[in-house]
Structures are given as structure tokens and as C-alpha cells.
């Protein structure tokens, strides 16, 4: 339906059989729930290992965005290569004029020439493969995917999280700037709950510090003399939000505002649920976001899962935004009023209606067509949005679609 956004290639030498296992792990990661709701072609995983023309040959070339000849099918907007650096590849690259060295040099040069659209992210099987070898020298300076992670995280989990983060930063155009996690938490509770919450938030910050993620934490990130309310609002709009939800979180003014601002800005949100006695008040602002249960006595596993989920949400959000841009270029006939980055809800829909209202204030009439990632809304959820649209002057209500529903209608 649309040209591909991201093509991801896992590359390894046939004498490094662990490369096939890593390729399988990468494929499994990107077939997960965080990415299956997008339009087809958002991210495709390919492998390169076997010789193209025979056993002694290098693999088939990897098509880079700037190297696709005119007239060929539209290339992917972004290409990422994950070379698996093992002893077999190191040995094959020791000859500077050898085919494997030339193959990798082409990829490295392509990344250097077009860093906004091409990324190379090595995974190292053994340090001997990169220590004082031509392979190590060739890929020196490229971010490795297996060196930064909190204690207790498996190698597979670490590689998946680091790769998702690297790809999200590539698609967002932030270069070497790390994704920033806004840690939202309740600051006031009874003494017993406050001590428990402080320990949990402190542990969240410690585990974030063990990754390549950056973090914003109001008690330490706001400089003296700053307009703290403005700083909080600005960061809630642009950072990925990790909400540490205890018993009192939903009722706190600033917690509500941070979540609302993040939702309306379309930034990724994950809630770490640490309800002890329960939340008597609740809040509709806290719904329609991924949640991860955290056990107060052993929170590390939940925090790590929450961080991995948040990073995947960042990549999914970046892919969705790129698909919107690709659609505007290649499918001008595809009429969508609002590319909602997550399932629409009253909070975000009212914000969109307010921003979309004509300057003259006249009722717009017609239908609002909304496209959001799968899964689809339920009938009662659609009914509420339809009522809001009609109240705002859209006489025909809403037409809420997901990629699968759109494909069923043939666009």
C-alpha cells in the first residue's frame, strides 16, 4: 500500500552460525505487538549471509536509499544494518582488498554519506573479532548494541531494547541525542506510602542510568531559578513518559497535567502500576496507555519490562509518523483528517477538535476520518467519539479506521 519506511538487515558470515540465531531474535522482536498495528511495510527484517553467486561469494547487496536507480520501485526511507561481528567475519575481512571487506566498506561509506537515513549497529560475538583487527577498525565509532543495560537484563532483551532505541533515534532525526524518559510520579502521600514511592522512583532512575537512555526527573533536572511549571510542561510534551502510578497518583494535579500533555502531544507513554491498597478515585486520563505491573518488594523485573516497552513505543510512534509523511507524498488520494498515534479517546480527540476548528469558528460539517494503529476500538468507544464529533459540528460524526480496516476497504 505504501513504500517501506524501514528496512533492517542482519548480516553475518556463514562461519559465524550464531548470526542466524541473532537474526531470528531480531525478527521475533519486530513481529511483536508494538509493531503489528502499523501499516504494512513499516519495518521489514531481512538477512544477508549466504553468497549471492556461490558459496565463496559475498551476500546480495543491500540497497541503500541514495543508491537505488531512478525508475526502480521506491526505496525504503531508512535502512539499518546489524552486522554480527564474529571470528568468521573478522577473518574474512583481514584482507583489505577481499570481498567481505569491500562489502562492509560499502555499507560504512553509505552510512557516512547519508547518516540521516542509514544506520550501522554492530553486535559483537567475541571481543577477539574486533580487537586489533581490520573489522574492528572498519566499524570503530559505530554504536554497539550489547554493552549498556541494567543488571538482570538478558543479552537478548538488551539487544532488542538497544536496537529499538537506535532505530527510534534514527527515524526521529535526533542523531546521537538519546531518547529522554520523563519520570512522572506523585510527590505527596502519607509517610509510609511516600517512603515506598521514593524507593521505587529511585530504583527506576538507577535502572535508567544503566542504559543509554537519558532521563528528566523534576527534583534534579530543573535548575534553580527556572519556571518549574513551564519546564515540566515542555518536557511532558517532548519526552517519553514513564508514569510511576501509586495509590495517590491519579488524583494529583501535576500528575494529571503531565499525562494529559503527553497524550495530546502524541508522545509515548507507559504506566508502571504500583497500586498497594488500590486507587479509590481513578481518572479517565490514565486509560488507553500500556501498563506494566511492578511488585513493590521486587520491582526490577517490572521496571525493565516497562523501559523495554517504552522504547518500543518510541520506535512505533516514529514509524507511524514516517508512514504519515510517506502517505502524503505517495498517496495524496488517501484522505485522513487525523493520523492518531494511538487509539483515539475523549482526551486526545477533544484536543484535536479544538486545534482543527476553523479560524472563523464555523461548524466544519461532514465527517472526521481518523486513522490509528491496530487494534480497532470497540463499538461503545466509537460511539463516544461519534457523539463528540457531532457536538463539535461534524454532522456525519466519525469514521475511525485502523490499517487493517483501511486495507479491507482497499484504501
TrEMBL record:
SUPFAM superfamilies, sorted: Toll/Interleukin receptor TIR domain (SSF52200)
Coiled-coil stretches noted in the UniProt entry, renumbered to this chain: none
Gene3D superfamilies assigned: Toll/interleukin-1 receptor homology (TIR) domain
Any one of the GO BP annotations: signal transduction
Superkingdom of the organism of origin: Bacteria
Pfam family, one: TIR_2
Every TIR domain range: 181-264
Name used for this protein in its record: TIR domain-containing protein
